[in-house]
C-alpha cells in the first residue's frame, strides 16, 4: 500500500459553494497510478466546510447558499461570538453542519465520484481568505 499527502492552498473565493474537484485531483497526481484506494480531503478551517453534491447545474449551489442563509441567520442577537462580524458565528455553525472532510473511493486511477457529483468548498464568510486543505490518498 502507498500513502500520499499534499497540502492544497485554494485562492480566496466569494461566499458560496464552489466546485473544487479538479483542484483536488490535480493536488495528488499519484492517484492516477492507483488501482483501488481512498482519498480524504480535510479543510483546516472552522468557518468553511466541504461536501459532495451536484456538479452540473449551478443553481443547486445557489440554492445551497440560500438554504443555509435562511437556516443559520446572521445578526442573531443571541450569538455571543461576533468578534469578526455578523457572518462569523453563522459561518462556524454552517461549517459544523456540513463537516470538515470528505472521503472518496479511488478506482482505476480516478476519484470514484458519481456522474453528477463534485467536491464543494463551502465558503461561509464574506471574506474568508485563502483556504488550506490536506489531501491524503492511500491504496494500491
From TrEMBL:
It holds the Pfam family YjbQ. InterPro entries: UPF0047_YjbQ-like, YjbQ-like_sf. It comes from the Bacteria. PANTHER family: UNCHARACTERIZED PROTEIN YJBQ-RELATED, UPF0047 PROTEIN C4A8.02C. NCBIfam families: TIGR00149_YjbQ (TIGR00149). Belongs to the UPF0047 family. This is Secondary thiamine-phosphate synthase enzyme YjbQ. It comes from Pedobacter agri.
Amino acid at each position: 500500500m502507498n500513502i500520499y499527502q499534499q497540502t492544497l492552498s485554494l485562492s480566496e473565493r466569494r461566499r458560496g459553494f464552489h466546485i473544487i474537484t479538479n483542484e483536488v485531483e490535480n493536488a495528488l497526481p499519484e492517484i492516477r497510478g492507483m488501482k483501488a484506494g481512498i482519498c480524504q480531503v480535510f479543510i483546516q478551517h472552522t468557518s468553511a466546510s466541504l461536501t459532495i453534491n451536484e456538479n452540473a447545474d449551478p443553481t443547486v449551489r445557489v440554492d445551497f447558499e440560500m438554504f443555509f442563509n435562511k437556516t443559520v441567520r446572521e445578526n442573531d442577537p443571541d450569538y455571543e461570538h461576533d468578534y469578526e462580524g455578523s457572518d462569523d458565528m453563522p459561518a462556524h455553525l454552517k461549517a459544523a453542519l456540513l463537516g470538515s472532510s470528505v472521503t472518496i473511493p479511488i478506482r482505476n486511477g480516478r476519484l470514484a465520484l458519481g456522474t453528477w457529483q463534485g467536491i464543494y468548498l463551502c465558503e461561509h464568510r464574506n471574506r474568508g481568505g485563502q483556504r488550506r486543505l490536506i489531501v491524503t490518498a492511500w491504496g494500491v
